[in-house]
Write a structure and sequence with these properties.
Radius of gyration: 53 Å
Low-confidence stretches: 561-575
Shape: rod-shaped
Largest sheet: 5 strands, antiparallel
Structural class: alpha+beta
Mean pLDDT: 80
Length: about 575
């Protein structure tokens, strides 16, 4: 096959020339095969004694090899010299052969006229479209010469047919060549486009590989563990640091869900549920989930992975060794709790003695002494409140603050608040009113001591920041499952920006009133934590220069076990 391919290979860069020469090769091979078949048929017919004479056999045996030799010469010319020359010789050879295929009368005016159609038709394909006219003329000359030889008039209709066929062949060949040229142009453009796109893709791939290598190098250099999950929740990328933190090889995490990973690192149900919830619904600014593994405390934060177009195609989870920070935080909470507890006893004594001095228990005092005693009492009381807040905050952070859920009377809760806050409100000239909706049951469920702390804290805030008007406390049924405490004031209101952080620890609204009234920003934080610990939720609505309303909602019925677990998770994780 290799030899045949080289034999029939056309040494030309012109695609039209290659096409024509290949077509000529096909015709040469076809005529050669027909010639060989004709020689074999003549031999068979002669041997079987059928209608062929010895002279005809001799003529065939001589002319056949000569024709094959002529075809070989034409093939050689076509292969090594020029295609057009070989085609012309081939077509002239056909015209010459056709003169001996039948009697002169049949060729000039009979059944064999059709043989002259052959060179006319294929001339436009082998040489040029206009070559059909040349061979139409040559065929016409042959017919005219034969007619003159026979002494008859030339066959004008046949000659006219030759030129009509030449026109048709010219048009067909010309259309074919035009179509081929257009196709080559389109192919050239497509090749160029493919080349350009291939080059662009190669450059893009090179950039992508470089960027991927850079990203991988950065990822591996991060000391925090990183796992990237796809939209189906399966891990697709993990760095080496994850092995140090979780004790699992990065390759062992690929295609694993967070539940499977949590099972591998042996997390309890509570931590596994919190971790799954964080990764199922990541959002910017979400609080981390912390859990213990062995002797380490790990902190996990998650965020959605967004494409440049803004679509989300996964979630990234960052695992951080929080052990040292957790230890320091625990030491801080323990220290604050200890100091706060130790401060409360002497402060209570100072407060009591100051009150007795002010009230002249130990004898009469002059106006200046009474004023000093009042100042000692007021500042000691303020300091005791701060210490109590710090102690509550430390206990909440350490998880040691206990909630005692029991039945209580809502009327007693409101009366106790009135007894505590009525005088401070009256001293500022404010109206403090309270209302219990008639539909509220006579017995509710909660921790009455902590509910009193929540209510007094909210009312105290309202009184402290309201300069004129009133403070209204309402207790009502929010719906069939919840009851609510509402504290509404006519104070300066809280800005939208401040409402976003008002419940955070050690955060205060940055206004002149806040600075004048003091405080360390723990009151509302403690209120929110206490409300959450009692399975409730708190919210606020506020309009600047019109007032603020805090609403705390609590369940009417004792919580279920699942509710207890869910609330504990939210408190522990800070969510």
């Amino acid at each position: 096959m290799s030899i045949l391919n080289r034999l029939f290979e056309i040494p030309s860069s012109d695609p039209d020339d290659v096409r024509r020469r290949k077509l000529l090769n096909v015709l040469l091979i076809g005529v050669s095969v027909l010639t060989i078949i004709g020689l074999l048929a003549a031999e068979i017919l002669y041997t079987t004694g059928q209608a062929i004479s010895a002279e005809e056999k001799t003529l065939i045996l001589i002319s056949g090899p000569l024709l094959l030799l002529s075809l070989l010469i034409i093939f050689t010319i076509n292969r090594f010299v020029a295609g057009n020359l070989a085609s012309i010789v081939f077509l002239l050879l056909l015209l010459g052969i056709f003169l001996f295929t039948d009697t002169p009368s049949e060729l000039a005016n009979g059944r064999s006229l059709f043989v002259f159609f052959i060179p006319i038709t294929i001339a436009s394909l082998l040489i040029r479209p206009g070559a059909s006219f040349i061979f139409a003329a040559l065929g016409s000359i042959e017919i005219a010469l034969l007619a003159d030889y026979l002494g008859i008039l030339p066959n004008v209709p046949a000659i006219t047919g030759f030129f009509l066929l030449a026109i048709i062949s010219w048009l067909s060949s010309r259309s074919l060549e035009q179509a081929l040229r257009d196709l080559r142009t389109v192919n050239a453009e497509l090749d160029q486009r493919v080349e350009d796109r291939t080059r662009e893709l190669t450059e893009s791939l090179a950039r992508e590989v470089a960027e991927t290598s850079k990203t991988q190098a950065i990822l591996e250099s991060i000391t925090d563990g990183v796992i990237v999950f796809d939209t189906s929740g399966k891990a697709m990328v993990a760095n080496l640091a994850i092995d140090r933190l979780l004790g699992i090889k990065p390759n062992d995490l690929i295609e694993k869900t967070i539940e499977e990973i949590a099972f591998q690192i042996v997390l309890n149900d509570q931590d596994r549920q919190a971790l799954s919830q964080l990764l199922d619904s990541p959002y910017e600014g979400s609080s981390p989930v912390r859990f213990k593994r062995g002797g380490k405390t790990l902190s996990v934060i998650a965020a959605p992975v967004q494409s440049e177009a803004g679509g989300v195609f996964g979630t990234v989870a960052v695992f951080r060794d929080y052990t040292r920070e957790a230890e320091v935080e625990q030491m801080k909470n323990t220290f604050i709790a200890m100091v706060s507890h130790e401060l409360r006893t002497p402060l209570s004594a100072v407060l009591a003695y100051a009150e007795m001095l002010r009230d002249k228990v130990y004898g009469p005092v002059n106006a200046k002494q009474a004023n000093v005693a009042q100042r000692i009492y007021a500042n000691s009381q303020r300091l005791l409140i701060l210490v109590s807040d710090l102690l509550d905050q430390a206990q909440i952070e350490a998880g040691t603050l206990k909630i005692h859920l029991t039945e209580f009377n809502p009327g007693e809760l409101i009366d106790a608040m009135q007894g505590t806050m009525e005088k401070p409100a009256k001293d500022k000239g404010l109206e403090l009113s309270s209302h219990i909706d008639p539909g509220v049951p006579g017995i509710l469920y909660g921790d009455p001591q902590r509910l009193q702390q929540v209510l007094v804290n909210l009312v105290n805030n309202a009184v402290k920041f309201t300069e004129k008007g009133k403070v209204t406390v309402s207790l009502y049924l929010h719906d069939a499952e919840q009851w609510a405490l509402e504290v509404m004031d006519t104070g300066p209101g809280i800005s939208t920006e401040a409402q976003e952080y008002i419940f955070e620890s050690f955060r205060q609204v940055n206004t002149g009133d806040t600075r004048n009234h003091g405080g360390i920003g723990l009151g509302l934080s403690i209120v929110k934590r206490l409300v959450n610990l009692m399975f409730g939720e708190i919210s606020l609505t506020s309009t600047l220069n019109q007032g603020t309303t805090f609403t705390a909602k609590f369940p009417l019925h004792p919580p279920t076990r699942e509710h207890v677990h869910d609330t504990t998770d939210r408190i522990d994780s800070g969510r």
